[in-house]
Each structure stands twice: as structure tokens, then as C-alpha cells.
Amino acid sequence: MITLVDELIASHNAAQAAADAQHNEDVVVCDREITNSANKRDSHAAAQAECLATVADTQELLANAESELTETIDNIAFLNQAIEDGTALRAQQAADYAVSQAKHQQAIDALTEALRIINNL
To answer: What is the pLDDT of residue 8?
Structure first.
């Protein structure tokens, strides 16, 4: 009977030793997985922070680009108006020059006629 109890205790101790060994292996695996998971979490948190910073930078760049676009459109409108005004002014100057040239030609013709008459006297 004592032998049977000793065998039972030995069997129980062997089972407990196997369970303890498995538990120790599981603890090592869990520690490794917890460390890996924590590292991944930290890496993902850093990547998220970088992404959020990139989004903020991109939004700032977009706002600046939109502002510059608005300014450029306003400048183009100003330049187009300046071109139209310059073109209209040039057309008016060309018309005024044509009238002035015609008057000068009439004066030259009148002087030429006067010189011809004086020379014929």
C-alpha cells in the first residue's frame, strides 16, 4: 500500500514537474510575446504620431497653396485688366497719331503750296 501511495505521489510529482516545465515554457513565450507586442504598439504609436504630423504639415501646405493660388488669380486678373487698359490706350494713341499726322500732312501740303505760289510770283 505504501508502495502504491509512493507511486501515486511519484506520478503526481512527475505530472506536476511536467506541468511546471510547460508553465515555465509558457511564461517565456508569454514574456517574449508581451515584449514583441509592446514594441509593436510603441512602433505603431510612433508611426501614428508621424502620420498625424504629416497630415498637419500637409494641411498647412494646402492652406498656403490655396492662399497663393488666390493671390495668383488676383494678380492674373490685375494683369489682364492692365493689358486691356494698355491695349485700349494704344488704340487711342494710334488714332490720335493718325489724326495728328493727317493735320501735319495738311500743313506741309499748305506750306508746299504757299512756297510754290511765292516762287511763281
So the answer is: 86
Q: What pLDDT was estimated at residue 1?
A: 79
pLDDT at 3: 84
Q: What is the pLDDT of residue 61?
A: 98
Residues of the chain with pLDDT under 70: none
Three-state SS for the chain is: CHHHHHHHHHHHHHHHHHHHHHHHHHHHHHHHHHHHHHHHHHHHHHHHHHHHHHHHHHHHHHHHHHHHHHHHHHHHHHHHHHHHHHHHHHHHHHHHHHHHHHHHHHHHHHHHHHHHHHHHC
Instruction: Break the chain into its structural domains and give their ranges.
Output: 1-87
Give the whole-angstrom CA distance, residue 109 versus residue 19: 129
HSE, side-chain direction, 13 A CA sphere, residue 111: 6
Name the grid cell of 29.
513565450
